[in-house]
Design goal:
heterotrimer; A mainly alpha (266); B mainly alpha (344); C alpha/beta (347); A: 266 residues; mainly alpha; MetI-like fold; 78% helix; globular; C: 347 residues; alpha/beta; 7-stranded mixed beta sheet; 3-stranded parallel beta sheet; 15 helices; disordered N terminus
Chain lengths: 266, 344, 347
């Protein structure tokens, strides 16, 4: 390829696609400052939707529910998923392929199928729906995603390090905690971030497992969108987008920091 | 595998690793559907702890099995309880015709599956497939030039940032992004304001399949670009230079060298988008109105809608799982015959 | 193991949901949109010290499913409509009310002292009532709608500018009515005829929505929406281009009630909530804000004249006489309704 010429058709087309990706977000942003209630035409600048957003207790409690679910599910899954990835890489046993296969299921089976299956299961064993059941259901896909990311990190590692630690007299547990886990850390963090975003965004699995007043943000947004939205939803989108951008920036920073440490180590 | 390590720590980088990894290790996926239906599966314990290669004495030593049990046990039990067992339950319920919540049910039969064969439901399935195929093609056509530009032509310094920039919308609520399109596509919305301003005829796309195609393409384009980028980045450009030296036109070079090299990426990206769009619920519900019932919405309605036909819903759900498995199997078969190189 | 769970599942799915979950001291309410607001909940909490948690449903069937699928012990108060009350009594899902613990029942309008769907209000207390009709934007429809068949006659002009309720009995029922049949037909031929007629209109229906059409109607993106009077009235007061009509061939007349699920946590709080809403002052204040038609005579008497005289909210007896309440149909007909509804919404 020749050195990048200033304007080529792929670059023009890409610019167009960037515009396509950001167009809806910009529209939401603009409407969030629109004074009109019906969102269709511009009727002057106003901050009232932001005011009503921050005094909307229901939305804030939905956000709190979502954060609780995501943090608890991701924290537990981080431990179990990492152990699962390491265990699958370390041990050979009958049914290992099957185990690994099942652990990939949540990545390929559509959400709706997992959601209805979980609902039927919970109904069949008469477990009342609550915040706890949402967390339990979210753990299934959080586990799977974290395990996959950790496995891929695991494959790049030097297996000799752990053996060396064992040779030098470390117990297997010590070798795991002191040698393997620190090396896996970037993978674990990244997997957690991914699982966190997916958990915060999940509508279907939450819808089918929510009960007892638990009302995560996606369910609340979905019900508002369907039952006639007040434009404070637009304001909420802007806040959420800024929040996610911050999180994404943080993730980039972690990456940068990891890179530097790796370079220093070499 | 080397290059993943360098980028494997950021949020987007992880998504990339994840998708690339997941789709390059497809053979493991293929074993799933068969195992799910095999009767032997029921008798196999899910937390497998025996290790045939190790002699008996060692196998009995507590350390030998403690490790695997501690590491694989909890996650295994969790997946068994909340994934495998529920899926088997759905399979069982799907075999009880006319099962309805709150009513006693009859014996086993294939009635729920036969019900799917009614023309109206076949149309729903056809519609789901056309949404999936259509938006996959759109994503490919729109995503390839972007990925190509990002991987090979964009300024090196800004490349990472540019890629992150394209993926960033994925970090926001998918519901809100779909909702944003309702504001754009409604007849009095932003799009028509623009259209009339430039002299194009106004369109009433909201609540039509067109809106669903736009919404699905928008939602899954970043995934496609991500996977194509990962594939194009590894492109051996020396081959292209050699071809050019030998007199090949850029067009020939593109078709004979670039495309074959990135075919695995194209296949993986298409599969990911196909699977995701086939089971998507949010976009058809918010943008499609009455005219775009797809399989996901139909399943949802059987469980949380007015009719409460759980048996029929379960049958549809099994069908969806089957369709997804089948598309993976097809990709693998296609992959074996073509020039797809087996990843190490 | 799977077999065992499956057998268990079949049992649990066939019977009423198991109870056992405890309450956390707060009152969990499962209701329609627009029936409660923060003000009402706050007033109750101030009075009794019991925090209120509100969840929203948009059709009776969704509420029933939630309750049966493990949510039975999650809610202390639910708001089923008339025919659903009968169905839920049959399923054993509702608590028989202890009249000793209720006060203010004498405030109810005479009509709701002994309703057909729940004789003697044994399991439910009527909360509000209304009709189902057509809400339209006067500037966006050809002519003036007077009856259901307006939709079919102006199908082409209204193409994809119509929404119908996402409610099986209401929407198929309105179609039955437009053919001159009853909302509660048990005749397979009539139900099928309604299905075919609704199917004719289907390509021109933009969406099946119970709520959420308001902005699009006001913005001019929709012309006509089938709507509950309680939702429609707010819009007609807000914008004078909006009109609500009760179709000439008759509409459905519904009553939404307060009931306590059989497995409800914290039934004491539930009784307190019912008593709270039966108080004339509370009820009339809520009606002024939320604009539903109250079934409480004492509360009605306290309303300002312009609300009392609002024909959309409180239609005349002549109009009411043409309307009919939806009642539970027999099992075979329910199956037919289910099948046809799924087909209409899938087509």
């Amino acid at each position: 390829m020749p050195a990048a010429r200033p304007v080529t058709w792929p670059s023009l087309f890409s610019a167009l696609m960037y515009a396509f990706m950001y167009f809806p977000i910009i529209v939401l942003g603009v409407y969030s400052f629109n004074d009109s209630r019906y969102s269709a035409s511009w009727e002057g600048f106003s901050l009232r939707w932001y005011k009503s957003l921050f005094s909307d207790r229901r939305l804030l409690s939905a956000l709190q529910d979502s954060l609780t679910i995501a943090i608890v599910a991701v924290s537990i899954s981080a431990v179990l998923g990492t152990l699962m990835a390491v265990g699958l890489a370390r041990y050979r046993f009958r049914g290992r392929g099957l185990y690994r296969g099942v652990s990939y299921l949540p990545l390929i089976v559509p959400d709706i199928a997992i959601a209805v299956a979980t609902l039927v299961f919970l109904a069949s064993v008469a477990i009342p729906l609550s915040l706890g059941t949402i967390i339990a259901a979210h753990m299934v896909f959080c586990l799977a995603y974290i395990a996959v990311v950790v496995s891929s990190r695991l494959q790049q590692l030097d297996p000799n390090l752990e053996e060396a630690a064992l040779d030098l007299g470390a117990t297997p547990t010590q070798a795991l905690l002191k040698v393997l886990i620190p090396q896996l850390a970037p993978g674990i963090i990244a997997g957690c971030l991914l699982a966190f975003v997916l958990s915060m965004d999940d509508l279907l699995i939450s819808s089918f497992t929510a009960g007892g007043g638990a009302n995560p943000l996606p369910i609340e947004i979905f019900s508002r969108v369907r039952t006639g939205v007040k434009p404070d939803i637009n304001a909420l989108s802007v806040v959420l987008i800024l929040g996610s951008a911050l999180l994404a920036g943080l993730a980039e920073y972690v990456r940068y920091w990891g890179d530097r440490r790796q370079r220093q180590a070499q | 595998m080397r290059e993943w390590g360098d980028e494997g720590m950021g949020g987007w980088g992880e998504i990339r690793i994840l998708t690339a990894f997941a789709f390059l290790t497809l053979p493991t996926f293929l074993t799933l559907p068969t195992f799910l239906t095999l009767p032997t599966f029921l008798t196999l314990p899910m937390a497998p702890i025996s290790s045939p290669k190790i002699p008996w004495a060692e196998r009995l030593a507590p350390r030998r099995w403690l490790g695997p049990v501690v590491m694989l046990g909890p996650a295994g039990v969790w997946l068994l309880l909340l994934l495998v067992l529920p899926t088997l339950l759905i399979l069982e319920i799907s075999l009880v015709p006319g099962l309805r919540l709150g009513q006693p049910s009859g014996g086993y039969g294939l009635g729920n599956y036969l019900q799917i064969l009614q023309p109206v439901y076949l149309r729903v399935i056809g519609r789901s497939l056309s949404f999936a195929v259509g938006s996959t093609l759109l994503c490919l056509v729109l995503g390839f030039p972007v990925a190509y530009w990002l991987a090979l032509m964009s300024p090196q310094r800004w490349r990472n940032l540019l890629l992150v920039g394209f993926i960033l919308p994925l970090w926001t609520s998918s519901l809100l992004r779909a909702y944003a399109w309702t504001a754009i596509l409604r007849p009095s919305g932003v799009l028509n304001t623009i259209f009339t301003a430039v002299g194009l005829p106004a369109q009433a796309w909201l609540n039509t399949p067109t809106a669903v195609f736009i919404g699905l393409t928008y939602s899954f384009l970043p995934y496609m670009v991500l996977i194509l980028y990962a594939s194009l980045e590894k492109l051996d450009t020396r081959l292209l230079e050699a071809a050019a030296d030998l007199g090949a036109t850029p067009f020939q070079g593109f078709w004979k060298i670039t495309i074959p090299q990135v075919l695995p990426g194209i296949a993986a990206g298409s599969l990911l988008v196909f699977i995701s769009t086939l089971g998507d619920f949010v976009v058809p519900t918010l943008l499609g109105g009455a005219s775009s019932m797809n399989i996901s919405r139909l399943i949802y309605n059987q469980f949380l809608g007015p009719t409460r036909a759980w048996g029929f819903g379960s049958a549809l759900s099994m069908l969806l799982i089957l369709a997804v498995s089948l598309s993976i199997a097809l990709l693998l078969r296609y992959g074996d015959k073509s020039t797809v190189t087996e990843p190490s | 193991m799977a077999g065992l769970a499956a057998a268990n599942c079949r049992q649990n799915l066939a019977g009423p949901p198991a109870g056992g979950g405890g309450g956390d001291g707060s009152l969990h309410i499962y209701t329609w949109a627009n029936y409660t607001d923060d003000g009402l909940a706050a007033a109750f909490t101030e009075r009794t010290g019991i925090p209120v948690v509100i969840d929203i449903f948009d059709s009776n069937e969704v509420m029933l499913t939630r309750l049966q699928a493990g949510g039975g012990d999650a809610y202390s108060i639910i708001y089923p409509s008339d025919y659903m009350v009968s169905e839920m009594i049959d399923l054993g899902l509702l608590t028989e009310l202890d009249k000793e613990r209720l006060s203010g029942l004498e405030n109810l309008k005479a009509k709701w002292r002994n309703p057909a769907y729940d004789p003697d209000n044994a399991h439910s207390v009527p909360f509000c009532w209304g009709t189902t009709g057509l809400l339209y934007n006067r500037e966006a429809v050809p002519g003036t709608p007077t009856d259901w068949d307006f939709l079919w006659k102006n199908q082409a002009a209204l193409s994809r500018r119509i929404t119908m309720l996402d409610d099986m009995r209401e929407t198929l029922g309105a179609t039955l009515k437009s053919l001159g049949y009853s909302y509660n037909s048990n005749n397979p031929a009539e139900i099928e005829a309604a299905y075919k007629r609704l199917l004719e209109l289907r390509p021109d229906i933009a969406a099946f929505k119970t709520t959420g059409f308001e902005n699009e109607l006001l913005g001019g993106d929709l012309s006509v929406s089938m709507a509950y009077s309680s939702d429609a009235i707010a819009l007609t007061l807000e914008d004078n281009r909006m009109e609500y009509i009760i179709p000439a061939s008759g509409a459905s007349l519904w009553t939404d009630t307060l009931a306590i699920p059989a497995t409800a946590p914290n039934p004491d709080a539930a009784y307190q909530w019912i008593n709270f809403l039966l108080e004339p002052e509370v009820a009339s204040a809520a009606v002024k804000r939320l604009l539903f038609a109250t079934a409480n005579q004492a509360a009605f008497d306290r309303l300002p004249a312009e609300i009392q005289g609002n024909e959309d909210l409180y239609p005349s007896e002549a109009i009411l006489a043409k309307s009919e309440g939806i009642v539970a149909v027999d099992t075979a007909s329910t199956d037919l309704f289910d099948q046809f509804w799924t087909k209409v919404t899938s087509a």
